[in-house]
Amino acid sequence: MGKAAEIAREKLAERQERMRALRDRLIERLPRAVDRAYPTGHPERRLPHHASFCVEFIEGEGMLLHLDMKGIAVSSGSACTSRALKASHVLLAMGIDHALARVPWSSA
User: Fold this and answer.
1) Catalytic: which of 21, 22, 74, 80?
2) What is the DSSP letter of 50?
3) I need a labelling partner for 83 at 20 to 30 A (CA). Which of 7, 9, 17, 46 fits?
């Protein structure tokens, strides 16, 4: 194993816990700060670095540009729907309303 991999492995648990805390804070606070923002996915069984939201009445492209200018890296949609302007089948399977699950714009 190389030195970089060794260091990464040693710090993995610490980094995961840091990311988990940031993720949980975002999931808790964003819906209080942004009207009509709804977290998606299981509240606990998720990757430490992943938070997902649906936001009503906001075009994805506009949100991406605004957040990018603030230095926040986000994506709209998913790889499996990157060119489709239709509701995400994953969000629909999770019970999200069809209108909310629709991806108005996604990055490729």
Assistant:
1) 80
2) -
3) 46
The neighbour count for residue 76, using CB atoms within 10 Å, is: 20
Q: Is the pTM of this model over 0.90?
A: no
Q: Which residues contact 65 (CB under 8 A, 6 or more apart)?
A: none
Distances (CA, A) of 99 to 11, 29, 96: 42, 24, 8
Give the CB-side neighbour count of residue 92, counting CA atoms within 13 A: 9
Amino acid at the residue 97? D
Contact by Cβ (8 Å): 102, 84? no
**Cα–Cα distance for residue pair 66/86, rounded to 1 Å:** 23
Predicted pLDDT at 21:
96
